[in-house]
User: Which sequence fits this backbone?
């Protein structure tokens, strides 16, 4: 792999959130020859505004040969289709293609990287770790897949010591040397398979988070890590496990956390619910302990942490009916986790549906029978979901989220909970899960505001 020098001829392939910020950083660092290529014609968006006055050349509406002719390095937007024609042309010419994360790592290898991946829980765990670190006065920043490009971190705080990074499979598949000091691998379940091709390639992309770690580094994984075992055969770092059983290095029983079976602390008043969040808490705790933060401070920080918006977020109570917004739940596993978080049986009016990811729904069978009073299914996935749920619990098929919510209100009574946990992407009705969650909250709040 080539050395990163300011004389490099770099192409930014795809202009999005991370590459537009990277262009700004490259300019600031005096990289002279940067070329930007974006397939979409649209030039009036926020990304274009960021790059238009940098003095770099660009093309919009197509990818020409300029992308690879006489170029040393390609930095691609995360998720750029690996089998596109342009990627094939680049591969034929053996030009390295990396992600922004790999590039920044190679520019600033002296900084400490704490990277978090998994199919679910990345944003919550990343935010919680950052919350604990910043409360402890550690010079740290948060970024990556959470919506803050790593380049923005460097632009904002060039002397940052600890970079807490949410890393997606898209970002990790384009790394080579990236080697975090601490890596957290939360879990795995089917996701993004149309991009990666199959489950094995998806897992393999994610294992880049630890493959270069050395004996000075740490990897935190679930105690049931059989899915990783083949990749761990040559692992050189230090392994630590989290779970609910005695074999785990960090264990949780009720709300009490243990490290190597010695009590650390009991969490008295946390605002994160469910076993899945206890897993996130265990990972954040072990990371913080490794960085020398004392148990009392970790406990206090966890207790002061507020759940992120759209992740099992309490919205309001309408006539004794609780409304919970879990719009970020875009997979079957996150719906499963949401259902498991409820202590009482048969109190949930579930709203699920949207753009179908076509993952099997069978894992939801037993828990749905137990916890769901009525399922209201909607959107493009509505029919498939309806044919599954209607065999198990009372179900209704509705048109869109608005009608589904009205129906849910009609069906619920005092003591119930209307839970939006769609297990689907949102694109059939909304721009993204944030827009879906905000719309849902507005619908709910309009009922109490009259
Ligand atoms: P990600 O960034 O990986 O999508 P989030 O923290 O944004 O993860 O949470 C996404 C969804 O997954 C939410 O619906 C949340 O309730 C659920 N979730 C959070 N943590 C976990 C976990 N450890 N295991 C499974 N599901 C989780």
Assistant:
């Amino acid at each position: 792999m080539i050395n990163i020098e300011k004389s490099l001829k770099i192409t930014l392939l795809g202009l999005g959130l991370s590459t537009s910020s990277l262009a700004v950083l490259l300019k600031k660092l005096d990289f002279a020859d940067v070329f930007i290529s974006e397939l979409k014609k649209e030039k009036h968006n926020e990304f274009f505004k960021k790059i238009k006055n940098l003095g770099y050349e660009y093309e919009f509406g197509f990818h020409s040969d300029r992308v690879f002719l006489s170029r040393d390095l390609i930095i691609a937007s995360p998720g750029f289709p690996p089998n596109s024609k342009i990627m094939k042309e680049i591969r034929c010419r053996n030009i390295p293609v990396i992600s922004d994360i790999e590039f920044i790592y190679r520019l600033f290898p002296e900084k400490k990287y704490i990277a978090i991946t998994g199919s679910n829980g990345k944003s919550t765990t990343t935010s919680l770790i950052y919350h604990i670190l910043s409360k402890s006065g550690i010079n740290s920043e948060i970024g990556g897949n959470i919506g803050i490009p790593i380049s923005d971190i460097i632009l904002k705080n060039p002397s940052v010591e600890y970079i807490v990074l949410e890393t997606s499979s898209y970002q990790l598949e384009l790394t080579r040397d990236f080697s975090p000091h601490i890596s957290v691998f939360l879990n795995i379940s089917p996701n993004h398979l149309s991009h990666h091709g199959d489950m094995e390639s998806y897992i393999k992309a994610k294992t880049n988070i630890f493959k270069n770690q050395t004996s000075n580094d740490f990897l935190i994984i679930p105690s049931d890590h059989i899915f990783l075992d083949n990749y761990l055969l040559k692992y050189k770092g230090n392994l630590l496990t989290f779970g609910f059983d005695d074999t785990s290095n960090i264990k949780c029983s009720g709300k009490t956390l243990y490290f190597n079976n010695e009590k650390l602390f009991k969490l008295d008043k946390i605002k994160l619910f469910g076993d899945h969040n206890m897993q996130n808490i265990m990972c954040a705790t072990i990371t913080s302990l490794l960085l020398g933060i004392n148990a009392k401070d970790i406990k206090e920080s966890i207790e002061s942490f507020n759940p992120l918006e759209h992740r099992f977020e309490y919205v309001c109570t309408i006539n004794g009916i609780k409304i919970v917004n879990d719009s970020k739940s875009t997979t079957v596993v996150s719906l499963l986790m949401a259902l498991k978080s409820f202590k009482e049986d048969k109190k949930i009016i579930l709203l699920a549906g949207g753009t179908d990811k076509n993952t099997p729904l069978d894992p939801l069978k037993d828990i749905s029978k137990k916890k769901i009073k009525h399922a209201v299914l909607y959107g493009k996935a509505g029919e498939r979901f309806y044919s599954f749920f209607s065999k198990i619990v009372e179900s209704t098929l509705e048109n869109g989220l608005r009608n589904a919510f009205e129906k849910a209100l009609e069906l619920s009574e005092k003591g119930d909970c209307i839970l939006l946990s769609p297990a689907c992407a949102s694109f059939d009705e909304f721009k993204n899960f944030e827009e879906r969650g905000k719309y849902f909250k507005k619908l709910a709040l309009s009922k109490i505001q009259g």
